[in-house]
Design a protein that fits this description.
Layout lengths: L19 H18 L2 H5 L5 H17 L2
Length: 68
């Protein structure tokens, strides 16, 4: 894996090139998972079966897509 997280500014001895497009994509994915985890049923996985858990994830995604 390539590291895509921006380094701390005080670390001057190591300079990795930051791929900004890859970093933006990773940020979008992480923010999406964070928003999905706001839904308690999804974060705690209350459902007993994989099918009902997937349905809860779909409902949460639909709720996020509609804009809260």
């Amino acid at each position: 894996m390539k590291p895509v997280i921006k380094l701390h500014p005080t670390h001057t001895n190591i300079r990795l090139r930051l791929d900004r497009k890859l970093h933006a994509l990773r940020c979008r994915v992480e923010c999406g998972f964070h928003a999905l985890k706001r839904f308690r049923a999804v974060a705690n996985r209350y459902d007993q079966t994989a099918t009902s858990f997937l349905a809860a994830v779909h409902v949460a995604c639909l709720w996020m897509w509609l804009g809260d």
